[in-house]
């Protein structure tokens, strides 16, 4: 609770001076060590990029061989058949209604 007391500018100045004091205590790597570490990181990234690409392409190849991506024609045929049956039923209903109107008009 005591940290909240005091001027905002003074607290901000104290935090900034603490950061600089901590940065003076840090052991910074030499340029050579930094270059070696960066090279190792880049090699690991390249290795895993190649590895994951091979895994993904191999999985896709296996799924293609198994037929996972094949389109099932029965679904499309069934949907077309249902649509055709609906159209035929609608036309039959309309024809019955039209002939019913014709009979009614002929009687009248």
Describe what you observe in this structure:
With 108 residues, the protein is mainly alpha-helical. 82% of the residues lie in helices and 0% in strands. The chain is built from 3 helices and no strands. The protein has helices at residues 8-25, 31-66, 73-107. The longest helix is centred in the middle third of the chain and has 36 residues, at 31-66. It is elongated and about 100 Å long. It starts with 7 loop residues before the first helix and ends with a helix. The mean pLDDT is 82.
Number of strands: 0
Overall structural class, as computed from helix and strand content, comes to: mainly alpha
Q: State the order of secondary-structure elements, H for helix, E for strand.
A: HHH
Number of helices: 3
For the biggest sheet, the summary is: none
Basic shape: elongated
Q: In terms of quaternary structure, what is this?
A: single chain
What is the CA–CA distance across the termini? 99 Å
**Beta-strand residue fraction:** under 5%
Helix content: over 70%
> What does the average pLDDT come to?
82
Uncertain regions spanning at least 5 consecutive residues: none
Radius of gyration, taken over Cα atoms and rounded to an integer in Å:
39 Å
Summarize the structure.
By secondary structure, the chain is mainly alpha-helical. 82% of the residues lie in helices and 0% in strands.
């Amino acid at each position: 609770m005591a940290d909240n007391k005091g001027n905002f500018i003074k607290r901000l100045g104290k935090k900034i001076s603490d950061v600089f004091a901590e940065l003076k205590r840090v052991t910074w790597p030499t340029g050579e060590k930094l270059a070696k570490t960066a090279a190792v990181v880049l090699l690991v990234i390249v290795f895993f990029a190649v590895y994951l690409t091979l895994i993904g392409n191999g999985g896709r190849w296996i799924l293609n061989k198994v037929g996972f991506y094949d389109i099932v024609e029965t679904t499309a045929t069934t949907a077309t058949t249902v649509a055709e049956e609906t159209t035929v039923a609608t036309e039959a209903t309309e024809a019955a209604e039209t002939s019913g109107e014709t009979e009614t008009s002929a009687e009248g």
